[in-house]
Amino acid sequence: xxxxxLGQSFIVFILILVNKATAQTxxxxxxxFGYHQxxxxxxxxxxxxxxxxxxALRKNNDQEREFFISRIxxxxxxxxxxxxxxxxxxLTLQNEGHDLVSHLGRLYTVASEVDFSNTQGEFAxxxxxxxxxxxxxxxIQEDTLINGFPLFPSTLIxxxxxxxxxxxxxxxxxxxxxxxxxxxxxxxxKLIKDEFAYGEVNASISGFEIIKRNVGYTLIGRRxxxxxxxxxxxxxxxxDALDLESSITLDQYNYSDIYxxxxxxxxxxxxxxxxxSIGEFPRDSFRKKVIKLDPNLNFEWEVTLGNPNYTRDxxxxxxxxxxxxxxxxxxxxxxxHGVIDKISEKGDSVWFRTFEPLNEDKALFSDFADxxxxxxxxxxxxxxxxxxxxxxxxIFSKMWIVKINxxxxxxxxDTTGVSTIEAFNGxxxxxxxxxxxxxxxxQDNLRAINYELYNQQGQLxxxxxxxxxxxxxxISLHNYASGVYYLHTIDKEQNRSVNEIVIQK
Length: 505
What we know:
This protein is mainly beta. It has a domain at 2-23 and 416-503: Sandwich (Immunoglobulin-like). It is 1% helix and 54% strand. Strands 1-38-37-34-35 form a five-stranded mixed β-sheet, with no helix packed on it. The longest helix has 6 residues, at 2-7. The radius of gyration is 24 Å and the shape is globular.
């Protein structure tokens, strides 16, 4: 039948039997707390609960940004939120590290407070949230390092066995050079137990990620030379006592990326994200990379994500996680809108999908900041969405959360009485049907498919064209009345099929 379809142009009507169940929407949710900005930086599954954290900017306040945390229900809607109001007028930043970790029932993350007028100082903070009491507070505040130079926290990890919290800081050894400092805190007493410091006289050293191994830790950073030589990736293996055991330098390209996120691979090795750049500072063009090292820090492979050429319109990647099936990795980020892609354990592309927020207002841009694996093998990605009318909207950016399965398909809240239309041997899926507000179109290895939506009077009410492979498209039905509509699917040879779509409100 598919061969006949590809060989000639004809019309197929697929009638959908509609139950009287309430139409539902996929787990693609945009929400806000009424602030001017609410930018998610982190997402965490802890004790079967889902939490997001980030930075909020209140309305009518162009400076003071505050840290927030929110518990999210199974429908991906916020149940509550808590704002850390520091009342000191400093600008709260959550730097390159955007990790939210769970430790013995409490949640921890890092942030910086900066006063750019340089009158009140700078503070590096570890923030603690107690879900039992809904208490959000500063756990540790470090204001200076030796010789008075400020600390900037990059990320942190939890060591439950030792009841420790390890924080990776960047600091200025002098006015030009950065250096790395890891501090291990006793979680109960907040006392410093161990430290690891590293710096060089001819280069700035920045730390981005620290990973707990079965025994010891792995630290990833960047070496940036003052004379303009290409930047290098540096990786250290540290012992449990934070002693240096081994290291490797990657100097094949000019590496430049603040989102050098990493994960320990199932084989005990290290897989991490980075970027290459060319041109003078500020760099003209970039391309994204994934690099795999074995447990002894020997190079295994690298792949380019997105456009293989250097470009200014490059794919931004912000987090990497192991596949729940241990057959590769899922990576999130953005390229105008949110992107999630899966690569195999050897770095081969499995699928690459673009997502758009489900919202009444079309998103001007959207991105994913973080992605986690749930206890049932699904994935939740979180980030932000900016409405197209942000210039006249008091809310500039909203929270955006999506749940997908192993194939990158958006999961529905409820499938009762709802159908999914499949075509092209399962390469095309259109759902949910019936629907209330939105219709999703998921394309696998299909290109240049055009869509036209007609009402019962035969009037064309919506068009979508120039589609790309492995993309997820959203058709908003918010402005259309309940009733029966007809979705025409047209391939590049102008073959056309028609599916009946029911809108129930």
